[in-house]
Specification:
heterodimer; A: 425 residues; alpha/beta; Rossmann fold; Coagulation Factor XIII, Chain A, domain 1; 2 domains; six-stranded mixed sheet; globular; B: 296 residues; mainly alpha; 13 helices
């Protein structure tokens, strides 16, 4: 479809989006009156409204059949770009041309009504996403099969388990047939098997049906696996459009604050509050070797201590701190949490969690450490983000005799024995 | 397994379908074709509003009828039995019901429509469709309820008629149809205007119910139009308030009340105001809708 006329599917020219921070355009009548009366005496009063450009001068072109990954830190403008592309809000400057129907999936289950049955919601949600009634009817059985909710079609969705709800919602969305599909983080939901099914469906949509997919995710592995190109957004500007591998590499190298050889230690002091919220805030993250030195390069045979210090300002229940270790290419190697070691209640104070990554586990390569804090199943306290990079070198756990690189995100010491069974050849 | 069915925009090759997104200027830019494309959503939303309202209540759709009936009963006692306001010889329950039903239709449209942006901010923040669909669906689904209520009105009508009340239907009863249309148009216009202003000034959401209540008392819902037009002090109210002649129009149509001399002229003014209100409402609503998710 559309192969003959090779016009780009999406053309974005100089798009910018401005938000006004603070006193948003006088949100109440009272503010309007106040503005009337205070305008003249205090000309500085308008200075309260600060403009903030969430997107600035973004231009790119996407061809039919491309799967585009949007990569960037929180607040880099990814969601705003998706919102502008999906026409939820208007850009302040610039122009976008979309050559095809657009469907956006910025959240699963948008518009689901809890009191309506599964069947009624399939039609409602489909229509909200832009499907015609006959299109939904034609795909109804497929949707039900994909969602695996057949026997609950006549049950109000408020009685669904959250897993069923998400499956049904994604199933409807997956059977949309727009030429351009915009997806935001939906894969963060559902169990592993269902996530795999979703990724498969996205792949099929793009590769077999030749549609264009925009995909925002913090799951860099999924971006690598699914996307044909990627866009890197930094501070609202598009800084790189290239292959996913290059974009991810640049993202990871720039995502981590640069602090030269002092690597291995990151501390937030009074002036720049650490990541977190009013309840819990990070104070420092430190990497130490076996002798307790703060370093950023380690021997493969030696353990790595990761110390995370954080201030708890309010009494918290059931929190956990976690780390994730990624390769420098962005693949997740493993993660660890202190959940089983945390006291049930954290009284206000300063706390330290130390993770010891055992020696003989890591591969000889560069790693990136990300961390976060949350209350499982409830809310995020410190969003997961990359903080430190470190290198593992030395003799290695598998290939000590040769300085070759060994495949794998990790390279655990695996006990093995070699023995002569008999003398006969 | 999942065969790609005929491509989405069936009749249209994908490449001809072009959407341009940029900051829009001007007021009167309504994409009628797009609205038509979304007619299925309109139908489904109407159904949803209707179904969801009374799911899980024991009496179910009976509430559509019971609510205005009980109000009419209370008002009959308060206004006509206790306060002794004249109904011009009509049975007071019918007199009230006949005006209360269209008034309830109007005020519910306005109350629900006015909250369009605030009540749907979550939906609007996540998916695009022409926002006009939502308040339009409200007006249509309330129309269903209104029709249902009118049926019950006719049951009471027949009962009072059989007991010899001076009420009758005639060819003038057809006047009810343009009255319904006018009520729909005007209420949609008002709700769009309020919705657009509420998006900017939240305070208005608290003011709307009060405004509606006040509006009801200056409209001849529980009293006769004559009581407005007959007084020098308040006659102008009947001219500037489009709902006054509309409400009176229903009584003329459905109860056979004699129309006042000025009623046709008043209705013409009312219709003109309604259409202007709707046009202004659509324009301001669309303008607000473009960036409302940034602020709500």
């Amino acid at each position: 479809m559309g192969a003959a006329t090779r016009k780009p599917m999406v053309e974005v020219e100089g798009v910018g989006k401005r938000y006004t921070l603070g006193n948003i355009g006088a949100g109440s009548l009272r503010a309007v009156f106040e503005n009337w009366f205070t305008r003249k005496p205090t000309p500085g009063g308008t200075g309260k409204n600060r403009d903030f450009w969430s997107l600035r001068d973004v231009s790119f072109i996407v061809q039919p059949g491309e799967v585009v990954g949007l990569v960037g830190r929180n607040g880099a403008g990814k969601s705003t770009l998706l919102k502008v592309l999906s026409r939820i809000t208007e850009p302040t400057t610039g122009r976008i041309r979309l050559r095809g129907r657009v469907a956006s999936l910025l959240e699963v289950g948008t518009g689901f009504h809890p009191d309506l049955t599964g069947q009624e919601n399939i039609f409602l949600n489909g229509a909200i996403l832009g499907m015609k009634r006959w299109e939904i009817a034609a795909k109804f059985r497929e949707i039900v099969e994909f969602a695996e909710v057949g026997q609950f079609l006549d049950t109000p969705v408020k009685r669904y388990s959250s897993g069923m709800f998400v499956r049904l919602a994604f199933a409807v969305a997956a059977h949309l047939e727009p030429e351009i599909l915009l997806i935001d983080e939906v894969l963060a939901v559902g169990d592993a098997a269902f996530q795999k099914k979703c990724l498969g469906k996205m792949d099929e949509v793009a590769h077999q049906h030749g549609r264009t997919v925009f995909f925002v995710s913090h799951n860099l592995g999924a971006v690598r696996a699914l996307c044909s190109t990627a866009l890197l957004l930094e501070g609202g500007r598009l800084t790189l459009q290239s292959s996913p591998a290059k974009v991810i590499a640049k993202y990871l190298s720039s995502a981590i604050p640069n602090h030269g050889d002092a690597g291995g230690h990151l501390e937030w002091t009074g002036e720049t509050p650490g990541p977190g919220n009013d309840e819990l805030r990070l104070r420092s993250i430190t990497l130490r070797n076996e002798s307790g030195d703060v370093v950023s390069s380690f021997d493969a045979g030696q353990p790595v201590d990761v110390e995370i210090c954080y201030d708890v300002a309010k009494r918290l229940r059931n929190t956990r701190t976690y780390i994730l270790v990624h390769t420098s290419e962005g693949e997740n190697a493993f993660g660890a949490t202190d959940h089983l070691h945390q006291p049930e209640v954290l009284e206000p104070g300063c706390y330290r969690t130390t993770f010891t990554i055992p020696g003989g586990l890591l591969n000889r390569r560069g790693y990136i450490l990300s961390a976060g804090c949350d209350i499982p199943g409830e809310r995020t306290l410190v969003p997961n983000a990359e903080y430190l990079r470190f290198i593992v070198c030395g003799s290695g756990n598998q290939s000590c005799l040769y300085p070759e690189s060994w495949p794998g995100t990790v390279c655990p010491r695996v006990p093995c024995k070699v023995g002569r069974i008999s003398g006969d050849a | 397994m999942s065969q790609p069915a005929s491509p989405a925009g069936a009749g249209k090759p994908a490449q001809e379908y072009e959407i341009v997104i940029q900051r829009s200027r001007g007021w009167m830019r309504v994409d009628w074709r797009e609205l038509w494309e979304y007619r299925d959503l309109l139908a489904i939303l109407v159904r949803r509003d209707f179904l969801a309202k009374y799911k899980q209540t024991i009496l179910g759709p009976l509430w559509f009828v019971l609510q205005p009936l009980l109000t009419a009963l209370v008002m009959s006692i308060a206004f006509h039995k206790v306060a002794g306001v004249s109904t011009g010889g009509l049975p007071s329950l019918l007199f009230n019901l006949c005006a209360l039903l269209p008034w309830a239709y109007f005020s519910q449209n306005v109350a629900t429509g006015a909250a369009t942006f605030t009540a749907n901010s979550h939906l609007f923040g996540k998916v695009y469709f022409p926002r006009l669909i939502v308040p339009s669906a409200t007006v249509l689904s309330n129309l269903f309820a209104f029709t249902l209520q009118l049926c019950v009105f006719f049951v009471f009508f027949a009962w009072f008629k059989a007991r010899g009340a001076a009420i009758h239907l005639s060819s003038a009863s057809l006047l009810a149809l343009p009255m319904i249309l006018l009520t729909g148009i005007f209420s949609l216009g008002v709700s769009l205007l309020i919705a657009a202003s509420t998006a900017r000034y939240r305070d208005l959401s608290h003011l709307t119910p009060v405004l509606l209540q006040l509006w009801m008392f200056v409209s001849p819902v529980f009293y006769r139009m004559e009581q407005l037009t007959g007084s020098n002090q308040w006659a102008w109210l009947a001219w500037v308030n489009p709902m006054a002649p509309i409400v009176e129009g229903y009584r003329v149509a459905l109860l056979g009340e004699t129309a006042g001399a000025h009623l046709p002229a008043m209705l013409a003014v009312s219709a003109a105001i309604s259409i202007v209100t709707l046009a202004a409402g659509v324009a301001t609503f669309n303008r607000a809708a473009r960036t409302v998710v940034d602020t709500v």
